[in-house]
Structure formats: C-alpha cells, structure tokens
Amino acid sequence: MPNDLIAVYPGTFDPITLGHEDVVRRAVQLFGRVIVAVAAGHHKKAMFSLAERMDMATRAVSAYPGVTVESFDGLMRDFIVARGAKAMVRGLRAVTDFDYEFQLAGMNRALMPDVETVFLTPGDKYQFISSTFVREIATLGGEVVRFVSPAVNQRLLQKVRSLS
C-alpha cells in the first residue's frame, strides 16, 4: 500500500477511549498518515470542550508516528477533500453500529466518490467501550480506568468533580 495515503478518523472523542486508540493503532498500519478529526460537536452536547477533547486526543495518539489531531466544524466532506485524504476510517464495535455506519458510508460515497470508507474493529477487549458509557459510569462515581488512558481518566475525575 502506498505510504503517502492519508486517512481521516473523525469523531467527537468525548472522551477518547482505549477503543479509539486501538482503531488509530490499526489505521497507522494501513495508511501513511492518519488525521484524528475531532468534531466541534454542534449536534451533540459534549462533556468536554473542543480544546479539552483536542488535548486528550493529542496526548492519546502521541506515540503513533504519522498521526495528527485536528478539529473540524461543518461537513466532513470539506475537511477530507481539503486534506487530500483518500480514506475515512470508522470504528465498528458491534452489529448495532453497522446499520448507521453503512448508511453513512453510502451518503459519504455520494458526496466523495473518490474517498473510501474503511471499517476497523477494535480488539476484543475494547469492543464494548463507548464514550457515552465511559461518561455515564464516571458521572455516577464508577471507575473507568480500564477504558481510558490514565491521562483521560484524570481529566474525567476532574470534570466530574467540577460538575458536582
């Protein structure tokens, strides 16, 4: 595979989990450059600000050469085309993700015929992790250290304390 291929891995990453990190690890084995694209998240109510999510994502992927973190607002299509990417990486955890992701891939193909959607599954031990579950568990006082990096866990603990 050509080493100059650029892939974009978009999401809100609120917060970035070990499952997200595993998808990044898998993506860097396939693409020369991977851009983790953190959505401003105007359609979702985020626990963390865009700046906080960008910082956590940057720290989480710092060990992977060829991976950068950028924010975006607006159409993913515009972001991908502006960067010359040829692939969009999407993580699939379970069959329930597939229906939505399949429809999204079809719409993206209509908007970006030259860009392929690549589905990657995280390792078995990460397949059940979602940012939503992590936020809920942390908010209710549960431990999430098995689901996020130590730095993200620390940020979650601080955020939960500040919301109390």
Explain the overall architecture.
The chain is of the alpha/beta class and 164 residues long. The chain has a single domain, classed as 3-Layer(aba) Sandwich (Rossmann fold), CATH 3.40.50. Helices cover 43% and strands 18% of the residues. It is built from six helices and five strands, in the order βαβαβαβαβαα. Strands 3-2-1-4-5 form a five-stranded parallel beta sheet. Strand 1, helix 1 and strand 2 form a beta-alpha-beta unit. The longest helix is centred in the middle third of the chain and has 17 residues. The termini are far apart. The relative contact order is 0.20. The model has no long low-confidence stretch (mean pLDDT 92).
Strand content: 15-25%
* Distance between the first and last residues' Cα: 50 Å
> Which fold name fills CATH's third level, the topology?
Rossmann fold
What value does the Rg take, in angstroms?
15 Å
> Structural class of the helix and strand makeup?
alpha/beta
CATH architectural category: 3-Layer(aba) Sandwich
Q: What would CATH call the class?
A: Alpha Beta
Q: Assign a percent range to the helix content.
A: 40-55%
Q: Which geometry do the CA atoms define?
A: globular
Number of helices: 6
Whole-number total of structural domains: 1
Report the strand count: 5
Weakly predicted, low-confidence segments: none
